[in-house]
Amino acid sequence: MYPVRRFVFLFLLLIGSAGASAAEPACRLTVGIQETLDPVFFVETMAPTLAHLRKTMPQCRIASELFAPADIHRAAEKKSIDFFMADSGIFAYEESRVGARDLASRTGPMSKDPSRAVSSAIFVRADRTDMKTLADLKGRSVAAVDPLSFDGWLIAQALISREGFDADTFWGRRIFSDYHDPDVAELVLNGDADVGILKACELESLLRRHSYDPASLRIIRPETGGGLACRRSAPLYPDVVFASLPHVEPVILKRIARALLEQKPSDAGYAWGIAGDFKGVDELYRTLRLGPYSYLRSFNWDVFWEQYRTLILMLIGIVISGIVHIIRVNRLVDVRTAQLREALRRQEALEKEARLSRQKLSQVERAGVVSQMSGMLAHEVLQPVAALINFAGGLRMYTKKTYGDDPTVEHAAFVIREEARRVSEIVERVRAYAKGKSAPRETVRAADVVAAAVRTFEHSTTSENVRLDIRVPAGLVFTVNRLEMELVVFNLMKNGAAAMKDVEGKRLAVSASQENGRIRIDVCDAGPRMTDEAFSRLAEPVTSMKEDGLGLGLSICRAIAEHHGGRLDFRRGETGLTASVIVPAAEGEQHD
Fold this sequence. Notes:
Blueprint: H1 3-18, E1 27-34, H2 39-56, E2 60-67, H3 69-78, E3 83-86, H4 88-98, E4 101-107, E5 120-125, E6 142-144, H5 150-162, H6 167-170, E7 174-176, H7 184-189, E8 195-199, H8 202-210, E9 217-219, E10 241-244, H9 250-262, E11 271-273, H10 281-288, H11 301-403, H12 407-435, E12 442-445, H13 446-458, E13 467-471, E14 477-480, H14 482-499, E15 507-515, E16 518-524, H15 532-537, H16 553-563, E17 567-572, E18 577-584
Parallel strand pairs: 1-2, 1-3, 6-7, 6-8, 13-15
Antiparallel strand pairs: 3-10, 4-10, 4-11, 5-8, 5-9, 12-14, 15-16, 16-18, 17-18
Helix pairs in contact: 1-2, 4-10, 5-10, 11-12, 13-14, 14-16
C-alpha cells in the first residue's frame, strides 16, 4: 500500500490511544483519513488534531481509519465515518455527491489564505536552455515524490491537461522517490531526471536543508502572488480539509469546529482556518479522471453520461426544440399551403367562370349579329330568287314555242324552278327565325326527310369520294317542319364529310331508330378521334366542327331540334364522331 504513511499513521495512532480513557464513551466518532496525503501531514497535522479533539471532547471516543480516495466516498455513503480529512479535490467531490461540509481547511507556514494554500512547482536545471516552456518538456524524464500527491504531482498534471496535452502520455521516464533519498531536487541536479515536480514551498525547504544553490534550478512557467510566498508553476488551491457528513448532530459539529479553530499551530506552523473558495478542485480530479472520477477511464454508458451529461442534455434539448420547431413550421406550411391551394382553386374557378362567361357573351353577340344579318340577307335574296323562278319559267315557254318540246330543256327548267323555290323557302324560314315565328309542321316519314337531305348532300361538293351507308326503317314517323329537319340532317352529313377530308376510304353512315317515343337519326363519320377540348366545345351554344367555321351550323341545328322538343347529342368513338338529332315520334301514326 503506502508503507511510509501507514507506518507513521499506526505509530501515531498507538501514541494517541495510549492515554485513552477506559470508561464507556457518551458518543463514538470516526474520522476517515485520506491515505495518499504526505507524511508531513500525518506528523504535523493529523496526530496533533486527533489528540486535541480527544482532549477537548473526553466524553466521546474518536477513532480514525485510513481510506483510499475512492473508498472515502463509499464510507461516506454507508455512514461508517462521521468526519474525514482529505485534500480539497476529494472534499469538493463529496460536497456535491453526499453533502459534505468543510469545518476547517489547513494553512501552512508560507500561506496566508486557506483558499490559496497549496500549488505545484515544475523546475529544471538552470543551465538547460532547451527547456523553457511546458511544450519543451514533452517526452522528457520527470522526477516527483508521489504519483497521488495532490499538491505536487496532480496539480502539475492538471496544468498540463489544461494546456492541451495528454497528461498520461506527456512525460517520458517517470521517477517517484516516495519520500526516500535521493530527493527530487538531487535527481534533477545530478541529471538523473530532466524535470522535477514538487509541491510549492517544498523546493525551498530542500534547498535550505541541503545547501543547494537556489540559482541552480529554474521554475518553468512561474507564477507569483496569491498569498503564497513560494515559487510555483500552477494555480493555488485549498489545502487539506476537515469535513463533516450530513448525519452528524449539530451539537457535535459545533464543538468539533470550535476545537479545530482554537487549536494552536504546530511547531512547523500548520493550523486550521476557514476556506471559502473550492472552485476548480473538483474539476481537477475530473480532468485527470482520478480519485472519485477514476471510473471515467473505462468507457461505458455510465461514464459517458457522467462525463458529457451537460452536453448531452443540451443536445437533447436542442434536438427536441428543433423537432418541435420543424413540426410547427411544417404544420404552418401545410396550413398555409392548403389555404394557398384553396385560394388558387377559387381563383382558377373564378377565372374559368369569367372566361366561359366571356365566351358565351361573345357567342351570343355573334348569334345576335348573324340573326340580324340573316334577316337582311333573306330580304335581299328573295328578289333574285323570285327573278330566277320567273326567268326559268319564261325560258321554258320560249324554248317550247321556238324549238318545240325538248325533254332535256323541260327537265332543266323544272329543276331550276324547284331548287329556286327551295331556296325561297329556306330564305323565308330564315326570316321567320329572325322574326321569332314558328314554322308549320307536318307528319312525315323519317326516311323521306333523310332521302331529301341525302339528295341535297350528293349535289354538294363535300360529297366527293364519300361512300354513304343509309339505314332508315320506313315505319318511323314524326311531326316536324320537313324543311328544317332536312336542313339539320344535311348539315350533320356535311360536317361529317368535312371531318373526313384527310381520311382515305371516307364512309358516312346515316341510320334511324325509335325508342321510348322518340326518333333518333344518327350521322356517323370515320374521321380522326376528336380531342377533349374540341369535344367539350360541342356543348357550347355557338360552336363549329371546322377550324374556319363561324359556329352557326350546329347552333341552328340545335335550335331546330329544341324547337321540336328534342335535342342534339354527340358521341365520340375510337375513330370518328356520331352526331344525333333526337325528336318526339308522331303519336298514333305509322307509315309503311
